[in-house]
Amino acid sequence: MSELIAQKNKPLRLGVNIDHVATIRNARGGGFPDPVRAAKLAEDAGADGITAHLREDRRHISDTDIERLTDQLVVPLNFEMAATNEMLKIALKHKPHAACIVPEKREERTTEGGLDVMKGRNHLKSFIAVLSDAGIRVSLFVEPEPLQLDAAYEIGAPVIELHTGAYCEARQVAREMEHARILNAVKSATDLGLECHAGHGLTYETVASIAAISNISELNIGHFLIGEAIFGGLDSSIKHMRALMDKARAQSDGMRIA
Ligand code: PXP
Prior knowledge:
Bound molecules: pyridoxine-5'-phosphate
């Protein structure tokens, strides 16, 4: 029987993704609402980091947003990017604290799946090396799949972010199965010495059982928080999410895996 290292109350960071403030701004083409203002508010509300995805089609975050975030943030910026030369150049220009490499398709509504690290290993390996040499902490966004984690480890990724989308969309038994997949992936990542983050689709309802997995050190959450902000304000949605995460982590028994 193997066990996930059971350590209570390991810190859990909240990265707030502000992409969809920019989505609303871009619906009218002007300057409002300003995603950088949202990022500053998120900092004040207790975000440990800000995440922004500069997509190839610039459908939400713009180049200027990234420049302003780099200048104005106090907390670390996690720059989400596709593995393209264009994005690499931008990352090297701004040198964010972290870069999360994601797959990107023009026709998708959101990042639909994780990277195929096995298939793209040579291409991704060079991106990890160049970004790491520039002092940027690189994570790979992957499905909770042990073979993908092995490949991430082999090509030198220090961090992986597990895609929680399937878990959040599933119901009942299917959700339990997705949760088991995530637990298993966290165990594999921990055994390999990879830092483990998670995100996508998380809500007040789904966050607790992910936050309770003590070897996950960061959750990146966006769409739901920005949506809830319509009803109660961004400060309130972030603080409530933070409280749910902290409560789940405090009650966690370390999530033993047989
Ligand atoms: N993590 C990654 C790698 C993502 O691509 C996204 C979506 O941009 C998120 C986390 C946040 O997902 P959501 O907006 O559904 O909370």
